[in-house]
Amino acid sequence: MIRFLQSGDTSLVIEFSTEMDRKIARQVLELFRRVERAGIAGIVETVPTFRSLMVHYDPTKATRRSLVPQLEALLEGLEVAEGSGRVWHLPACYEGELAPDLDDVAQRTSLTPDEVVAQHSAETYLVYMVGFLPGFPYMGDLPQHLQLPRREEPRLRVPMGSVAIATAMTGVYTFESPGGWHLIGRTPVRIFDLRRQPAALFEPGDEVCFVPISRAEFDAQERAAAAGTLTLRPLEAAP
User: What does residue 80 show for φ and ψ, rounded to 5 degrees?
Assistant: First the structure.
């Protein structure tokens, strides 16, 4: 049951569910798009999450009473087909120091490192939301065999491009930062790059497949990425 919840004096939360799944996430994203297109007076920002949409509004131009009926009207027929987002194939190297937690993940899941890589790269992940770091994609759903809690001791420095897993999610660190997820690989692609427009490569609703590459391929692509000559396009845009 969809609920309208007040969040402070100037925000509404439209909560679709207390659970997280792909159908709910796609409905949230479709409502996000509808609100953006509708141009409702007083709305200043909308923020999609795993299972809800936050609507920030200017209280001098709108109120909860004025907004709720307009938002309810946008909920009519809110069904979204799977595969409606862009599809990306993201190269990732799962070797050596680029994958410092791979052996530990394998041991804790009773798999071999190769099996961890095979399971991780066999899935097509939905970008549920973007946050934490600029452009950081929260992607699911991770195969159940690979689902682990976050590290007990977070790292102070996680390298940019690190491919990580935690709970039912996988993601890519877009900048060097602290982090508590398990690092099982690294991509040479700059997921967030101010030299590119838009700077964030992925957006909610996109789908991502990880494609294993060798260390030599990674090093070559990393040099191209540093020079700004490595490009990645969604499958629909491929020549």
Answer: -125, 130
